Structures are given as C-alpha cells and as structure tokens.
Amino acid sequence: MNFEQKIDELKNKIYEEFTPLIDSDYIHLDLPYHSNIGDTLIWEGEDTLLKNLPYKCLHKSSLFTFKESKIPESAIILLHGGGNFGDLWRRFQDFRLDIIKQYKNNKIIIFPQTVWYKNELQAKADAEKMALHRNLTICARDKISYDFLKTHFNNNILLLPDMAFCIEQQRLKRYIAKPTKDILLLKRRDQELSSRDDYYKYITEEGNIEERDWPSVERPGIARDLIEKMGILSKSAVDKYVNYLYRPYLIKKGIIFISEYKYIYATRLHVAILSILLNKPFVFFDNSYGKNSAFYDTWLSDSDFIKFIR
What we know:
By secondary structure, this protein is an alpha/beta fold. Helix content is 43%, strand content 19%. The strands form two sheets. Strands 1, 2, 3, 4, 5, 6 and 7 form a seven-stranded parallel beta sheet that branches. Helix 11 links the parallel strand 11 (282-285) and strand 12. Helix 8 packs antiparallel against helix 9. The longest helix is centred in the C-terminal third of the chain and has 25 residues, at 235-259.
C-alpha cells in the first residue's frame, strides 16, 4: 500500500466512524499548549475534521486555561487525543477525570488515545470513575489500547487511527522544503525513549547523520515564552495566541524540519506520521512502552514505505 492509499484509508475510517458521534455544538478541551509538534499535529487534525461538520465550537482551551463554567447540557465535550491516557503523564488524565466527574449530563468523547498503565490499581480506579458517566466514549489509537479498554473500562470504546491523518494535504504542501540534509535520527529526549542503544547500526545510507529531537522541544524559543507571560494577564489571550499563532508556527516548523532531510529514522510516533503525510519513507523504532509498535501493528504493517525495527 502506498502513501496516498494509506492516508485515505485512515482518514476515511475516522470520518466514517467518528463524525456520526458529533450531533450538536461542542467545546474542545485539553488542547496542547506546549512545544511538542506531534501533539499540535493531532490538534490540527481534530480541528480540520470538526470544521467540516455543521456544528459550532463554543469554546476551546488547554487544561491550564480552562475556566470552570456552566456548559449547556446539549453541548458535547471533546477531549484531545494523543498518548497520555494512563499514569505516565498523569496531569492530563487527572484533568479528564475532573471533567468527566463535573459534567455528568454532557456527552463526552475522548479523541484517539494510546493507553498505558504501569499501576493496575490506578487503572482500576480510573475505570471506576469513568464508568459513572452514562455517555462517555473513549477512542483507542491502537488494538492493544482498545483491548485493554474493552476489558477494564465500562464505556463505549472505539478503535480509530491518530487524528493527524485528517490534516488536509494543501495545509502541508505550502511549507514543504527541498531536501538539503542527509540523515535525521529523531531521538526523543524524555521518559518515553527506549533503553536500546543500537540505533546507528540500522542506518545504511551514506551521509551526515544529525541526531535531533523536535526543534521546538530542543529550543522552545520566544514564541513559547510568550504563553507564560500572557497567562499572567489573561487566559483568553493565551487561548487566542496559541490557536491562531503558536499552533500554525509549530506546524510550519515541523513540516520544514522533516522535509529537509533525505532519510528519516524516527523514535517519535508523529515524526513517523508526518513522514507519511509528506510521502517520505522512514525507519521506525519503538518507544519505551510499545506505543509505536502497537500503532504500527494496528494501522501501518501493510505499508511498503516503512521499515519497523523491534
């Protein structure tokens, strides 16, 4: 299966199975106001899908800028997708639980998430809290996460790809750069990095190797600093700044960064996904707890342009 076929397959599955859930105006919460370009790509995909529907966004914010308020019971609450459902990135899961507890009469949908718990008792506690909500849908981003949720969580569970596949191609093409650099080894620098130390032995091409993380993670820069400064004055100002300026800035930066390399070796899921969206073959490594392999096995194993290293 080639790039275009894979992108269309995954995008169509999202539109066919997710869009019927959206039947009224909505609010969009837990948006990523940080420097991880991958999470921003997910948000861009979510936003693209929602803008194609005949309903209105009543409010959008991050967990830091959200102000508790009376939300109409007819409004759907949408919670951002990604890879933080569980106990590794706990503040995001706690925010979801707070929203689920506070807004018991609203339909709530969690965009596709990778699920991972180290602590089984924590998983049980979360499942018990979520089971109290009568109209909660959790979307799993891979088959392992889906099976775990179906086994342990008493909610409506769907299996769907990552939302970044909903980004329109014309949104990406305007920033594509000509490849001028040889080899990128994108090696993440956080707690999700695998303990393996043999990445370089799989690089077979000739040329200069640059070991990097997302440039916005390496150097958040002035644009990220503005969020903290503006937050002191106005949360609504931060919401507008991130939505209209910082998010486009990160997407542009990510596209230029990936497109300027001839060969890609990725330890981050969204470096892999962005490579697919940009029609660039790549070599893919797992993260610390199997997120990448689970996504690859669920959605990408029939693709001719990926080599996955276990």
